[in-house]
Every structure is written in structure tokens, then in C-alpha cells.
Write a structure and sequence with these properties.
It is a single chain. With 121 residues, the protein is α+β, with helices and mostly antiparallel strands. The protein is 26% helix and 46% strand. The chain has three helices and seven strands, in the order ααββαβββββ. A hairpin with a 2-residue loop joins strand 4 (77-79) and strand 5. Helix 1 (6-17) runs antiparallel to helix 2.
């Protein structure tokens, strides 16, 4: 099987992200040892390591969303073995109420798989 380049991973990521298919992105690209890192002290998320733990982190958050007001993901910007997207979420989530997050999402690709996702907000 051909190993995808970072540019190819980012292009497919974008295709899925524009359809809000985040768990499909995880299934298709996340390495078994993937790390997910949020800002220190985030009231919404912590960090997770390993594909199953990162999946649970996402599922737990999605399960607390009671209303989606708007979502936006930019086109990826790729350099070397990293790519980044801007993401804006206007959502109502338990127990925080309505929140608006503007973030940069950074991804590291190794051997065609995402090994790191890090969020800045």
C-alpha cells in the first residue's frame, strides 16, 4: 500500500473535515500511538494518548453538545510533515452553555498517519 504524503493526508483530511466527518478522519489516519494535546488548563478538554483514548475524548465531548450554531474549518496549510487548519465552533455544550472557540489545529504526519494533533485556543 502506498504511503500518503503529508499533502495527500491534508487534502483527504480537508475533504472529510468540510463534511464534519471527524471520526472518519480518526479511523482513516490516526496512528495507534497518536497524541491529542489541548492548551494547559483548558476547561473543555484534556490530553489523550493512543487511538482509543483520543477517540473517547472526542466522543465524550460530542456527547455533551446540545446545539450546533455554526462550524467552520479552513483549508489546510501544509509544510514539511505538518499541516494546520483554523477552526471555529459556536456550540452549546454541557455544562458550559454556549461557547465560541476559535482555534488553530496542528497535525503531524509520519509514514502517512497522523501521530499528533495539538490545539491552540
Amino acid at each position: 500500500m502506498k504511503v500518503l504524503s503529508t499533502q495527500e493526508v491534508a487534502a483527504r483530511f480537508n475533504e472529510l473535515a468540510q463534511q464534519e466527518k471527524w471520526f472518519e478522519i480518526q479511523d482513516e489516519f490516526f496512528a495507534e500511538n497518536v497524541k491529542s494535546i489541548d492548551p494547559t488548563g483548558s476547561p473543555y478538554f484534556g490530553n489523550a494518548e493512543g487511538k482509543a483514548a483520543v477517540r473517547k475524548k472526542g466522543e465524550d465531548f460530542v456527547g455533551r453538545i446540545t446545539e450546533v450554531h455554526s462550524l467552520y474549518t479552513s483549508e489546510p496549510l501544509v509544510t514539511g510533515n505538518h499541516f494546520t487548519v483554523a477552526r471555529e465552533k459556536d456550540i452549546t455544550v454541557q455544562p458550559h452553555g454556549r461557547i465560541f472557540i476559535k482555534e488553530i489545529m496542528l497535525y503531524e504526519v509520519k509514514d502517512g498517519q497522523i501521530v499528533l494533533e495539538q490545539f491552540f485556543y
